[in-house]
Design goal:
five-stranded antiparallel beta sheet, 377 residues, alpha/beta, eight-stranded parallel barrel, 33% helix
Length: 377
């Protein structure tokens, strides 16, 4: 694969002629929409002849809700080792609460494409928010905790899952050790079925990093308790933040380097965002709310508004600005250059693999680039 950056005057036909490849492959790889308008600064993934073969073996995981389109799911599954269904909750009595929509088609599709379906366990309240009081009440009550684990085992067995991902966020600092013990107990029960347990970790850079998102997560102890971990290395730029990259590579690198001092590299999966944000300007803290957009959608917005895409060499992320209906906007998203930077990090540090949040939108160029770089197992 080759990455081409669009310059003024480029067309699909001219690029195809320059690289001696069919126009159709450029259109297909990059999900271009008729009339195939290109944007200056846009990164295109081109299928060009190469002698290079993948050398690094990775595991890939993608999170998805049960309302994912079947087309997107089947287009993506060939590149995944695992499919994590988001999500299963639980009650204060330890009862498992399944997704509102039936997820059976996702599990069946995962088997069809030889990807392991994982149950994602989350402590959501009725409003769909992480509830740290629910976490506390369950993990500190041996009876309820045992009931939850028994029900979890029964659900995994009944539904045909092949692993469990524990995604608990905003854990209270005083529940740090209780959560570690809970992960140990879940792992012991799920391992008996022959399946692994992974745990999602907030992106820390030190043991004593302050904040509700971080204080309840002990990297060293959770690295021992779980079979694998996922570093949630995204959301620096988020809905209520100032405009910035979702996963700036300089910040991602700091998290990885800290994690490697506490957790074996063969247990670490790098979190990768499959989305971007569009912020109205000027940004006002507490008032401005960004809109979540897909990476392909970002290109369409730039094309429709005559914007030029720029690339931040520190964050290794693309961005652009435009004005619509008198309102200025700033957009940060992911392209094949930013994905390449993340893949480089995985290879540089010999990490176990990657976990995508989330795969609800198809980003074909990412998957083609991944397959060009790695053996996925």
């Amino acid at each position: 694969m080759t990455i081409h950056i669009v310059v003024s005057g480029d067309t699909v036909s001219s690029i195809a002629a320059a690289y001696q490849i069919p126009s159709d492959t450029i259109i297909y790889n990059n999900q271009l929409v008729y009339p195939y308008t290109l944007v200056v600064g846009q990164a295109l993934l081109l299928s060009t002849p190469s002698e290079q073969q993948p050398t690094h073996i990775v595991v890939t995981n993608g999170y998805a809700y049960p309302f994912i389109s079947n087309w997107v799911l089947t287009q993506t599954l060939p590149y995944l080792s695992r499919l994590s269904v988001f999500s299963y909750g639980f009650s204060s009595e330890g009862d498992i609460i399944p997704p509102v929509l039936d997820d059976s088609f996702m599990i069946q599709a995962a088997y069809q494409y030889q990807a392991a379906p994982f149950l994602t366990l989350t402590p959501f309240d009725a409003g769909g928010r992480f509830n740290n009081n629910l976490i506390s009440s369950v993990i500190n009550n041996p009876t309820v905790r045992n009931t939850l684990i028994e029900n979890l085992v029964a659900t995994v067995t009944e539904k045909g899952f092949q692993g469990v991902d524990i995604d608990f966020e905003y854990i209270l600092a005083e529940d740090r050790l209780a959560f570690v013990n809970f992960v140990w107990e879940v792992r012991a029960a799920i391992n008996q079925l022959g399946y692994p347990v992974t745990v999602a970790l907030a992106p820390k850079t030190s043991d004593d990093q302050p904040g509700l998102l971080y204080e309840g997560k002990d990297y060293a102890l959770l690295g021992e308790a779980a079979d694998e971990v996922l570093l949630m290395t995204y959301e620096w730029g988020y809905t209520y933040s100032p405009p910035m990259a979702v996963a700036p590579i300089n910040n991602v690198r700091r998290v990885v380097e800290y994690a490697l001092t506490r957790i074996p590299r063969e247990k670490i999966n790098l979190g990768i965002p499959n989305y971007g944000y569009d912020w109205p300007l000027p940004y006002e803290k507490g008032l401005t709310r960004a809109t979540t957009i897909g990476n392909i959608e970002a290109i369409t917005i730039a094309a429709d508004n005559g914007a030029e895409i720029r690339f931040d060499e520190t964050a290794m992320s693309p961005f652009f600005r435009y004005t619509q209906n008198g309102i200025a906007h700033e957009v940060w998203f992911e392209d094949v250059r930013s994905m390449q930077a993340k893949f480089n990090l995985v290879e540089e540090y010999g990490l176990h693999g990657m976990g995508y949040w989330q795969i609800m939108r198809l980003f074909r160029a990412n998957w083609l680039l991944l397959a060009d770089r790695f053996f996925v197992v």
